[in-house]
Write a structure and sequence with these properties.
By secondary structure, the protein is of the alpha/beta class. It has a single domain, classed as Nucleotidyltransferase, domain 5 (2-Layer Sandwich), CATH 3.30.420.180. It contains five helices and six strands. Strands 1, 2, 3, 4, 5 and 6 form a six-stranded mixed β-sheet that branches.
Amino acid sequence: MKVAGFGFRAAATADSLHAALRAAGGEDVDALATLAEKAEAPALAALSARLGVGVIALPAIALAGVATISDSPRQRALFNTGSLAEAAALCAAGPGARLLGPRAVSPDGLAMAAIAERSGT
């Protein structure tokens, strides 16, 4: 199973999210994931429809303490993890998942994406 995790600002568009996803490694994912409070954002819904995959909404408590490649002081202060995108991808992909690389940022700086994969699914 391959999951793209996202962190993004309110001003992010579907194109911002899509650009971050492409920069993170591509569009061949089984699901998108993010913080529950962001899961119904119009930009994410548009990307979900564009790719034909669902969105996994994760509570902040599930992301807290998840070890990530990236380490943003702001994200650590807000969510107790170094990267919301990386933590969301890992949590949604499930036990034994690994990141394919660090988070990638969209050219407009409004969206971050990371991809995690769990073998055997």
